[in-house]
């Protein structure tokens, strides 16, 4: 049976000041009336029953998750005792799922991505699940790059493993994390590289075998958690083992090391919504090229992203700015430098101004 494990633990600091420690990106309503988290669940519901949808996240966000996903049972909410990278969260979800269903196939989906044609996405997901079940491969989706982006990971495609109509599956030959511009341009020009989407499909048993082979220390800790599930000691064991797990992504810890990784080039529109500028590809512009959400009055204002919670923002004679107001914070930046917001957040923290984060 196919299950979904939705990762809902990130903060999304590049969306500050709209996103914050108490209100991370996955809870924001960016593309409509639903939050990114709600949209992720709605996207898979026609394919996966709600009882087979699990959400993993830090305990500080569990009340928000319950509030936004009232149809998901508490037993399907997997609480991380503290913030860890994706390998730990996925591993925790894996041992809970295999306890329920030893034959489970799990789709791992970040909660903060944009996906265009959802029907196409579900077709890809169903096909990947079938392949993962029969092949014992670790399957990921790759997105055909449209520009030399340096903020994404890349996957080099190897030999063709399977073709079924328009769908193809390749061996994943090599992973490269966030290359410089020259390498990213080379990757784009060769046509042999895909953006790493961070979405995975695998048999849970296959995943745990990969943990055993490539991350034996984490596998041992996951095994102890498995043994404690459904016992009075469950939460105590999870807390104890979790605090000692490595802080490492599943890409670095497993996918880059395993030799049974397959990648499916996916043609649906996708974005990890990693920065304010990513919104320009999906949200409507006014006649001067601005994206405006909130109250704004401007004169000679062009190509800007303007976001306001409850203030009137006024502009005269500006171009290509990022202006975001939320709560008591206001960000004004050159739109081209939106990737530096993460560094700005660090500086705010260093100035002991955490109340604004």
TrEMBL record:
<dbReference type="GO" id="GO:0004475">
    <property type="term" value="F:mannose-1-phosphate guanylyltransferase (GTP) activity"/>
</dbReference>
<keyword id="KW-0548">Nucleotidyltransferase</keyword>
<dbReference type="Pfam" id="PF00483">
    <property type="entry name" value="NTP_transferase"/>
</dbReference>
<dbReference type="InterPro" id="IPR029044">
    <property type="entry name" value="Nucleotide-diphossugar_trans"/>
</dbReference>
<feature type="domain" description="Nucleotidyl transferase">
    <location>
        <begin position="4"/>
        <end position="281"/>
    </location>
</feature>
<keyword id="KW-0342">GTP-binding</keyword>
<dbReference type="GO" id="GO:0009298">
    <property type="term" value="P:GDP-mannose biosynthetic process"/>
</dbReference>
<dbReference type="InterPro" id="IPR005835">
    <property type="entry name" value="NTP_transferase_dom"/>
</dbReference>
<dbReference type="InterPro" id="IPR049577">
    <property type="entry name" value="GMPP_N"/>
</dbReference>
<protein>
    <recommendedName>
        <fullName>mannose-1-phosphate guanylyltransferase</fullName>
        <ecNumber>2.7.7.13</ecNumber>
    </recommendedName>
</protein>
<dbReference type="InterPro" id="IPR051161">
    <property type="entry name" value="Mannose-6P_isomerase_type2"/>
</dbReference>
<dbReference type="InterPro" id="IPR054566">
    <property type="entry name" value="ManC/GMP-like_b-helix"/>
</dbReference>
<dbReference type="GO" id="GO:0005525">
    <property type="term" value="F:GTP binding"/>
</dbReference>
<dbReference type="Pfam" id="PF22640">
    <property type="entry name" value="ManC_GMP_beta-helix"/>
</dbReference>
<comment type="similarity">
    <text>Belongs to the mannose-6-phosphate isomerase type 2 family.</text>
</comment>
<keyword id="KW-0808">Transferase</keyword>
<keyword id="KW-0547">Nucleotide-binding</keyword>
<feature type="domain" description="MannoseP isomerase/GMP-like beta-helix">
    <location>
        <begin position="295"/>
        <end position="347"/>
    </location>
</feature>
